[in-house]
Design a protein that fits this description.
five-stranded antiparallel beta sheet; globular; alpha+beta
């Protein structure tokens, strides 16, 4: 991983050693789960048109421009379930230049995926509930002390929403990755819905760490100093698409997603990794919670007492959480982060001494006492490889 000033790997390692804690959250709720100018619109749509768009597939440049314009004129606001694109191959995310203005970014809601305080668990594989660990504020500037961490913005039926996300390494493009890791529920509604729209990643959002009050009147460059990167492809697990729910634990063991992004201002610039100066390796098939002494979760919690504008982190010894004996066991740590931190990366020290991404925030209880995230096994590797090889 490149080391520019102080990389996220260094910062994360320091947090792990210090024993501090991270938290995560999501949009449209207040829990621990989460659901970002200029440039040519990119359409990766191979099925009949999306909701509110022309019904025929574009077959010429002229038709494509009409399709794009219909989308920009508001076709994406139609959330009719019969036309809401939901299959893995249906993802479409045309760039709408300037859509994510400073006001829209500041006003995006968190997208929590909460469970009851007394969540039912398969006790044979579940450790005692951890004690709450207060989330600590990460010291700005974020591009130095949390390089690679950012906010993910998107639109859903409830309006503009936000999650957290992390820049990860791409073996197909060493040192030039354009891959972002987040939660599945931050890009796809799961069993009862389809792909969210206008998905964009903002690395080092609010780099100076201003409070919500301090950001009043701030321009877009203050909120997105490294630019806005739109997802031109996304992939999540088949299990999340088939089982996932916006509330509760369904699909949580498979609640992960990988995005490929491009700068809003168009091609020809630096990659996301070069722009940010860092990217984390993904630690697939990491050992069970019993074998990892510490994990740290990072994100932008948005529900009170947090304001959604600053990065927080929690670190602790992970335990196991099993919601269904037939599905993989998840990691769990004590953490007080709330909605908005969803999708944020969980980091741990790998056997080679590097800091790797080992999970992401998926669920948390209504009491905001802990967070849980999936163990990244073969299904997660499959999702990752699908995106990496697509852009090889």
């Amino acid at each position: 991983m490149p080391s520019i000033r102080r990389s996220l790997a260094t910062a994360a390692a320091a947090v792990l050693l210090a024993g501090t804690a991270t938290a995560c959250g999501s949009s449209s709720g207040g829990g621990t789960d989460a659901r970002p100018t200029g440039g040519t619109a990119t359409v990766r749509q191979t099925t009949p048109a999306a909701a509110g768009l022309p019904t025929s597939i574009p077959t010429s440049l002229k038709d494509l421009k009409k399709w794009e314009q219909a989308y920009k004129d508001g076709g994406w606001r139609n959330w009719n379930r019969s036309t809401w694109l939901r299959k893995a191959k249906d993802f479409a995310n045309p760039v709408i230049a300037g859509l994510w203005s400073e006001d829209r970014m500041r006003g995006a809601d968190q997208n929590d995926k909460q469970v009851p305080a007394d969540v039912p668990a398969d006790q044979g594989m579940t450790d005692p509930e951890p004690a709450p660990v207060p989330a600590r504020a990460v010291t700005p500037p974020y591009h130095v002390n949390a390089a690679g961490v950012g906010k993910l913005f998107f639109d859903g039926p409830q309006g503009s929403m936000v999650c957290s996300a992390t820049v990860v390494e791409d073996p197909a493009h060493p040192g030039k990755s354009n891959l972002v890791w987040t939660a599945g529920h931050c890009v796809h509604a799961g069993k009862e819905g389809g792909w969210y729209r206008n998905i964009a990643f903002v690395p080092a959002y609010n780099d100076g760490g201003r409070t919500a009050a301090g950001l009043k009147g701030a321009n877009r460059n203050v909120l997105a100093p490294l630019g806005v990167f739109w997802a031109d492809w996304a992939s999540t697990s088949d299990q999340w698409i088939d089982e996932g729910s916006e509330k509760g634990g369904n699909g949580s063991p498979y609640d992960f997603a990988v995005l490929h992004v491009a700068p809003e201002k168009g091609a020809g610039g630096k990659s996301l990794q070069e722009t940010v100066g860092a990217a984390l390796p993904v630690w697939f098939d990491a050992p069970s919670a019993k074998s990892i002494p510490a994990m740290g979760a990072w994100g932008y919690p948005a529900a009170p007492p947090y304001d959604g504008q600053r990065i927080y982190a929690c670190t602790g010894r992970p335990g196991r959480l099993s919601l269904d004996a037939q599905e993989p066991t998840e990691y769990r740590i004590g953490c007080t982060m709330t909605g908005g931190a969803s999708g944020g990366g969980w980091f741990a020290t790998m056997p080679n001494g590097r800091t790797g991404l080992v999970s992401n925030t998926s669920i948390g209880p209504v009491t905001n006492a802990w967070l849980a995230g999936p163990r990244l096994g073969s299904e997660a590797k499959k999702v990752f490889d699908e995106v990496s090889t697509k852009f090889r």
